[in-house]
Amino acid sequence: MAQSHCLKHQERPTDTRCKSCLKPICEECTYTTPEGKFCSDQCHQNSITSAEKLAKLRADEAALAAERQRAALIKTVILILLLVGGYFAWPHVPDSVKKPVNRIIKSVTGGK
Ligand SMILES: [Zn+2]
Ligand SMILES: [Zn+2]
Question: How many angstroms does the Cα of residue 27 sit away from the middle of ligand 2?
Answer without folding.
Answer: 7
